[in-house]
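Homework-ish question, so no full write-ups if that breaks the rules, but can someone show me the predicted structure for this set?
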Amino acid sequence: MSEMEKQQESTAKFIDGIDFEKGGGIVPVIVQDSKSKDVLMLAYANKEALSLSFSTGMAHYWSRSRASLWKKGETSGNLQTIKKIDTDCDRDTILYLVDQVGVACHRGTWSCFDSVKKNDE
Amino acid sequence: MSEMEKQQESTAKFIDGIDFEKGGGIVPVIVQDSKSKDVLMLAYANKEALSLSFSTGMAHYWSRSRASLWKKGETSGNLQTIKKIDTDCDRDTILYLVDQVGVACHRGTWSCFDSVKKNDE
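A: Not a homework solution, just the prediction itself:
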């Protein structure tokens, strides 16, 4: 088996192990900046969004309000490059470690959380 | 108004501003270690759990599996002292910054996330 095939098998196994059913087809995704470890946002992913995050290396989510797949930064340019995708003991929560281009929040702030500021913010 | 009254008013305003309805009475809580900034777990809180976290200074949650209020560490001793409570732009997610006693995960690991290790773990 080639290195790429091994990686694809490992990714498929990870995705298959996620408990999407508990949340009606979606799981919460904690998004953390890989360098500063700042928590940037909480979003949700369905199986397709998670698969696309793996295959494209760019963060994808499921927008609950728009009920549609959402590539972060597709319109704003505030893309998130995936550095690592992790899950927890219950396999019902995802953690994306990302490199954030620009800012994470639609308000124009580094993080969606009020008290989390970038060093120069 | 005394300093304590001001603080109580500010806490009441924070809690009243949280959108518990979107999640059927509960909101997800990202739990982050205040020193290392490691993400320790994701849990859920209802209004009572959030209020108790403020008033006691110890992390409280709503257990979805047991359908009951849950003081983290009450039986295990793995308590979480609250350092800060924050929310996000949509007011539908909470962030607890905590000092973790012992470990966060029932598996005996520092974090519930597979790849998040303590320095000496």
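Now go work out the reasoning yourself. Hint: Chain A touches chain B through 26 residues (CB under 8 Å).
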